[in-house]
Amino acid sequence: MKVSLSILTVDYANVEKSLSGIINDVDYVHMDVMDGEFVPNISFGYSFVKSLRKLTNIEFDTHLMILHPQNYIKQFADAGSQYITFHVEADCDVKETIDLIHSYNVKAGISIKPNTKVEEILEYLPYVDMVLVMSVEPGFGGQSFMTNSIDKVRLLKELKTKNNFNYLINIDGGIKDTTAPYISEFVDMAVVGSYICNAENPKENLLKIKNI
Ligand code: DX5
Ligand code: ZN
Predict the structure, then answer these.
(1) Where are the beta strands (DSSP E) in the chain?
(2) Is 27 a catalytic residue?
(3) Residues 7, 40: contact at Cβ < 8 Å?
(4) Is residue 63 in contact with ligand 1, taking CB distance under 6 Å?
(5) Nearest listed ligand to the Cα of residue 173
(6) What's the pLDDT at 74?
(7) Do the bridges between strand 2-6 and strand 189-192 make them parallel or antiparallel, or are there none, so unpaired?
(8) 32, 108, 139, 183: least buried by Cβ within 10 Å?
(9) Ligand having the closest approach to the CA of 43
(10) Which domains occur in the chain, in start order?
């Protein structure tokens, strides 16, 4: 399974040291951007993403948990994101925001929170490059995997196959060695944060997930 490494729980002052030895072995780096409005937590902004761009050439999978994503797309594109994903529950026109992301030659993703159904995003599926299913309530790392996400990634895979859609299926929250087997046959990649970043041996846990 491909891994998008969420760096949310690393020590930001020692980010280079914390990620050395793993950053170039992951498939994507997942940037969790939180504004304290869409979610009850604040993380980091585009200057931090831009600084991390100097550490690696791995693709950045930027996850905007912010209320007004359309106001910040240019900044996150310029900071070096290859994918920018925003929430359909945010206060924005979803199709316009997808088009705006594409106008910067960046791939566009949409994300759904645990209470949002796949049926609610059907009209956008032909236009997106990624669908990110939240398997925890967004806001914090280290939470437990919610099993209602399994049916969602299964359905997204069925729809993708049936309609020849191009989006990658991604899942975010509580992914570790014991939960990854539930979703591995349906997803193209998975976001993994604390299971790798807070591990005694991050490399070992990364390899365990990649081999599922
Ligand atoms: C939650 C974030 C996730 C999270 C993943 O709001 O979007 O990316 O940090 O971390 P783990 O793997 O610890 O659930
Ligand atoms: Zn995330």
Answers:
(1) 2-6, 28-34, 59-65, 83-87, 107-112, 130-134, 168-172, 189-192
(2) no
(3) no
(4) yes
(5) 1
(6) 98
(7) parallel
(8) 139
(9) 1
(10) 2-210 (3.20.20.70)
Compute, in angstroms, the gap from residue 138 CA to the centroid of ligand 1: 7
User: What's the CA gap between 203 and 196, in Å, rounded?
Assistant: 7
Buried b (16+ CB within 10 A) or exposed e, 39-77: beeebbbbebbeebeeeeebbbbbbbbbbebbebbeebb
Integer Cα distance of 209 and 7 in angstroms: 16
| Ligand 1 site-directed mutation target among 10, 191, 197, most atoms within 8 Å of CB | 191
Query: What is the structure's pLDDT at 51?
Result: 96
Number of the ligand 1 atom closest to the C-alpha atom of 197: 13
Query: Residue 163 Cα, ligand 1 centroid: separation in angstroms?
Result: 30
Question: Is 172 assigned a catalytic role?
Answer: yes
pLDDT along the chain (212 residues), means of 10: 96 92 96 98 98 96 98 98 98 98 99 98 98 98 98 98 98 98 98 97 97 96
Cα 119 to ligand 1 centre (Å):
24
pLDDT of residue 204: 97
